[in-house]
Write a structure and sequence with these properties.
Blueprint (H helix, E strand, L loop, with lengths): L1 H23 L3 H16 L6 H34 L5 H31 L4 H11 L3 H12 L5 H18 L5 H21 L4 H22 L1
Length: about 220
Amino acid sequence: MRLNKINAGLLSIVFAFSTLSAQQHLDPEYIKVTNERAAKIVVKLDLKNDAKEKAVSNIIAQQFRDLTEIQDGRDAEVKKVKEDTSLAKEKQNEKIDKLKTKADESIAKLHKSYLKKLGKELSEDKITEVKDGMTYGVLPITVAGYNDMLPDLTAEQKDYIYKALVEAREHAMDAGSSKEKHGWFGKYKGRINNYLSKQGYDLNKESKDWHERVEQREKAKADKK
């Protein structure tokens, strides 16, 4: 009897240690992927300092892993709730909302901590480059697109567009997938388009005219070659 109790105790310790290890050590292949993603961002910063490059790369890679841990944990719990047939739909939705809110709060704290860590290594300009690197450069590309499509934008309108996209980027850099990142920018582009429509722009016409101008420019470049 005593031996069984000891064995049971040992098994519980092993199980607890295994669970802890699983939480602390992600899949080596994923760690490699996050390191590579971080390195691609850092190389473009042109820091010219090996120690700083390594430090910044480690911070970014760890951010990717920390975000994944929160998001995967949330998704696993949400899946359990959805599969619990004993719960009414209303109760399921209530639990899911709480899980998502809790995860969002954790991500918001992580976001602040991450920027603080980067701030110890990089200037504000370089941190902005990191943010763009984490979000595929969508912000500068989109700003350039609006300016090219609508060359008569006022300073106030340009400021609105830029600030809206900056806000989108803050959310997008915490998103867990490419689709979700682009989804945040899509949401804010919708707000921008609504704003511009109220400012008197016919965006359907402006977009059509812009694409025609772009095609003409591309054709002119091709003809010169």
